[in-house]
Amino acid sequence: MDAYGIGANDVANAFGTSVGSGTITLAQALLIACFCEFGGAFLLGANTTETIKGGIVETSLYEAQPEILMLTMVCALIGSSSWVLFATSRGWPVSTTHAIVGAICGAGISAFGSDGIQWSGITKIVLSWVVSPVCAGLVCALLFGITQFLVLKHENSFQRGLVAIPVYFGIALTVNVFYIIFKGAPNTSLKSDSKIGIAVGIALGVGALVFLWCFFFLRPFLRRRIKDNENLKWFHVFIIPFVKPQGEVPVVVEEKGGKAAVDLEAGEGKADASLVALEDKEKSFGQKLKGFVTHGLNQEVNITHDLNTNSVHDHATKYDHDTERLFSAVQVVTACFTSFAHGSNDVANAIGPLATIYYIWENANINVKKAPVPVWILVFGGLAIDLGLMTYGYHVMRTLGNKMTYMSPTRGFAAEMGTSITILTCSKLGLPVSSTHCITGATSAIGLMSGGGFKSLNWRLLLGIFAGWIATLPAAGLVSVGTSELRNVYR
After folding, report:
1. In the chain, which end has fewer C-beta atoms inside a 10 angstrom radius, N or C?
2. pLDDT in tens, 364-390
3. Alpha helices of 364-458 — where are they, by DSSP H?
4. TM spans, by residue (predicted)?
5. How many whole angstroms separate alpha carbon 385 and alpha carbon 378?
C-alpha cells in the first residue's frame, strides 16, 4: 500500500509538468516512469534505507523486545499509506518521506513515549517546508528568466532556440548524471570528498559528448522536422547529415458535407451502438482486471474546462509554438533522470520498514542499520510503485500539470531542471529538501513569471497543497498511533 501510494503521488511529480505541457502523453509518461522508477529502485534502492530503518526511532529501546519494533513498522506503513492515498485522491502532492517519518514517530511514541524518537530529524523536516519550495522556485525562476530573455521574447526565437537546445541538453545531462552518481548511490566510494572529482569528471564528459551530438545531429533534425515540416522518422536523428529531403508531412483536410463526414457520422453511430451493447453485457473477471490496470491510462490530465483554470491560463503569456516544441526533447530527458533518481532514493520510504520487519523476523535482533536489503523486497517495492503510478497517478498529475498554472515545454523544462539542481545542491550542503516540495515551488515560480503575475497562479489550490504538507506529519502519525494502540485492545 505504501509503495503503491508513492507511485501514485511522488512519481507523478516527475512527469506532471511533462504531461501537462503536452510534451508526452499520459500513457508515454507511465511507460517511461515504470522503467525509470523500477530501474532506480532495483539498482540503487538498497543503499538508501538506513535512515528509514533505524535513524528515526531509538532502536536501543527495542533490544529486549525486537517484536515491538516489527509492530511499530507495521503500524507506520499503515499510517503512511493511509494518508498518502487519501492525499492522492484529493490531488495533493505531499511528501511520502514526511508521511513515513510521521507514521514511524507516531508508532514510536505509542510504544515508548517521547523518549522513543530522535527529535533532531523532526526539526529538519519542519524547516524543509520552507527551504525546499523557496530554493527550487529561485533556481527555476533563474532558468526560465534566462530562457525568456535570450530565446522566447525575440522574433527569431526559433533560431535562438536551436542554439540553446544543445547547451541546455548538455547541462541537463551533466546535472542529472552527477545527481545519479552522487546522490542516487550515497554509499558508493564516489560520494567521498576525496573522489568527488571523479563524479564531476564523468558528468562533464557525458555532458560534453551529449552537447556535440545534439549540435551535429539533434539540432538539424529538429529544424527540419519542426520548421521545414519534413516527414522524418525518429531514427533519422542518428543519421540526419546523410538523409535527403523527405518532403512535407501530409496535412489531412477535414471534409464537411462529403463522404468522409457521412462515414464519420456513421462510424460514430456504430461506435455508440457497440458501446451500449458492451455495457449491456456482463464483463468477465479478466475484463474487469484489465479495466482496473488501464484505468489510469484513460484519464484526462490536462483539464482546462473549469472557469478557475481557464482564468489562470488566460493570464499566461503564450510563446511561439515551434520554439516550445524544441524544448520537448530536453524535458523528456530531464523527467527520465529525475524519475530514476527518485526511484533509487524514495523507494526506501516503503521498503525500509518492510526490510526492518523481515530482518528482525529472520535474525531476532534489532541491528538493522547496516542490514542488507533482500533483492525480492526491492523488486516488490519497485513493482508496487509502478502499479500505483499506472492506476492512480493521474490525480497528482492533474494538479501539477495544468491546474496550478499554464504549462508548456519551456516552462516544464525549467521546473524539472530547477527541481533537480535544488535537490543536488541542498543535499550536498546538508539542507533538508523534499522532491515534492521542490517541484511544487518550481511550478509556483513558473506561474508567477508567466506574464500575469499573481493572476497566473491558482492560489486556492496552492494553499490547499501547503495545508496538506503541514498535515502530513500529524495525520500519518495519528493513524499510526491509533493502529498501534489496537494492540492493547487485542491484549
Report:
1. C
2. 887 755 556 787 887 888 788 888 888
3. 375-392, 394-398, 409-429, 435-448
4. 68-87, 125-150, 162-182, 194-218, 375-394, 459-481
5. 11
